[in-house]
Here is the input.
Amino acid sequence: MFRARLILCFAMLMFLTPAYADQAPRRVVSMNLCTDQLAYMIAAPGQLVSVTYIASDPSASLIHDKLSNLHINHGLAEEILRLDPDLVIAGAYTTRTTVHLLRRLGVQVEEFKPSRNFQDIRNRIVKMGELLHREKVANNYLEAFDKNLEAFLKTPSDNAQKPVLGIYSLNSYVAGKGSLESEMTKAAGFRHMGAEIGLSGSGRLSLESLILTNPDQLMTWRRWAMLPNRSADVLRHPALQRWFSEERRIFMDQRHWICGTPEVINGIKALKRAYEGKKND
Amino acid sequence: MTDPSFEKRSLPLLFMLCILSVLLFILSLGWGQVWINPLLLFAGSEDPAVKGEYLILLEIRLPRAILALIIGAILGLSGAVLQGLLRNPLAEPGLLGVSASASLGAVIALYTGLASFSILALPFSALVGAAIAVFLLHLLAGSRADILVTILAGVALTTLAGALTTLILNLSKNPFAVLEIVFWMMGSFADRSLQHVWLSLPFILIGGLMLAFTGRALDALSLGHDVARSLGVNFRRVQLLSIFGTAIGVGAATAVAGAIGFVGLIVPHLLRPLVGSRPSQLLPVSAAGGAVFLLMADIGVRVILPGKDLKLGVITALIGTPFFLWLLIKVRRKEVL
Here is the structure.
């Protein structure tokens, strides 16, 4: 009985999807933390029906407390199909098997690549607007985003004068040049340590090397640094605490830095504020 | 039953190994991303030009070298004791699942939040894990059991503990926890602090002392149970000392450095031809040899792939596995004959 319904469900999906192509999608499912948050901003009320379980994690997601009307998915094909979506949005590198399966079954799946710079974010906002047929809302976000960004980037100053900001994450991870993190750091008026030492992609930087590299300011993630586990141990290491005194430490909310959404503006603003507060003290 | 020739040979060897471990300890302090003169440690941090180097030396490299020294010693010692107690040349805390179970204990303490109640919860939970493993092994295999049965029981324990460790890290709310699986299975001394030394040192000393007391009794035991009993050896006491000594020492070691395998297998076997197979002679040199071996492996980690945090267990397994297979073939040949 259940199987028959499921097959019927597949069949309906296959026939009906093309018919919706010119209309706004009515049941949108997102399978990636970053598309969750972007879709949530841009979608019409009720248009987004499901987001991932990570979106409900307060340490990773800015919309964790706004999901009471949404289904939570774990990126599994079965639960996605049961939601009867007419558009599925996924990250380009995660939940691959589910994406392939959904496509084989005729579900429209759109993929978003992770953003590495501000242009990527602009592109995603536009793309999300088009997919959801909410171009106007997307455009408003885009304009606000551009205006803010312009304000950040127009403060010119000698690059060599800028302080170096080292961002040190769990397990000693450091991002390199060409990452969103480094673009955000530069927009906030810093030089980015990972880019300065010629790191590309991301990699581990031992505590020794961090101390020898000696960035002017050290930024760590407020929530994750408190976790009682081994990967956060290095952030509480006595050598780190002694070398980077209170006035050289910045604690930030990692949620603004994970995803390429308009929220990165708030991340940059918070960083600027934190640093300026230190200078005035 | 005392053979003076071996006693004569084991003392100079012990002395040499101690000298060697001191030299390696100093080399371990100096070697890293950049060479730092170990003597700086005594010069203090007055000069601002070397303040960073002094801090690195004191807070990062010193704990690393101390941990390699004491953990190498306890692993070598417990390997020698377990081989004597189980009368099994293949016994070793890593292979028998003791280290993996200690890892499981540590991970349970960390991710259930137990570790945030008391700083002692972490080593304690790890040593409970280790104690359960040694106890189960003894129950399963006993001291008269077939060598291979004991090893297979160890394999089963290692697999189970590894799977449960992975499960707990998977269930963790922390998105980075899964990356830690490698640490708990392979071990590393990178970026440990003096806190880790203070946390493990007392346990390792107590465990080491308990194990050291088993030497004479294990000598008698090597002649067979009946002979040992007639010589007045209290078998239960030896058992308890070995089990709890291993659990306390290896448990605390694993809690701060992860599971490091094969040290306890390789070291006693390399030294046995030099001092003879009498445990009382073998135990002290195995401890010193374990320290030498692990200090060398930890320097090797930094020489082979600097800046990549190559896990210590990778090196010990690369050396240990061929060695283990060779021993296995030797054991089987003896059984056929």
Summary: Residues 90 and 265 of chain B are 7 Å apart (CA to CA). The interface with chain A takes residues 32-34, 52, 55-56, 58-61, 110-111, 113, 115-116, 172-177, 179-180, 183-184, 190-191, 193-195, 307-309 of chain B (CB under 8 Å).
